[in-house]
Amino acid sequence: MKNQICDGNTIDHTPAADVPSGAPALIGKLVAVALGDVKANNEGTFVTTGVFELPKVQADDIGQGAQVYIKADGNITSTASGNTLAGKAWAAAGNPSDTAWVKINA
Prior knowledge:
Blueprint: E1 10-13, E2 24-27, E3 30-34, E4 44-47, E5 51-55, E6 67-70, E7 76-77, E8 84-89, E9 99-104
Antiparallel strand pairs: 1-4, 2-3, 3-4, 5-9, 6-7, 6-8, 8-9
């Protein structure tokens, strides 16, 4: 196939702020996780598929398979309003818990 650009599992991106390895970032409406530490205004590689343990709003009670959203601060939440769709909860993440397993962009 001559028209395939890439497999879509990673994307190169130049963030405006530092993004530590394993941290989520929003690229438009696309959720991506930094493959390594990426300094502000430097291009780095981000993963766009898979399941990641991400920080979440501690008080949220998220059921397995639920749609989850990402806040501007990078925390996962069950609240849609004002947030961007991040994917699906791979496992339940009750209240209180600091992280959620998320299948991003699902």
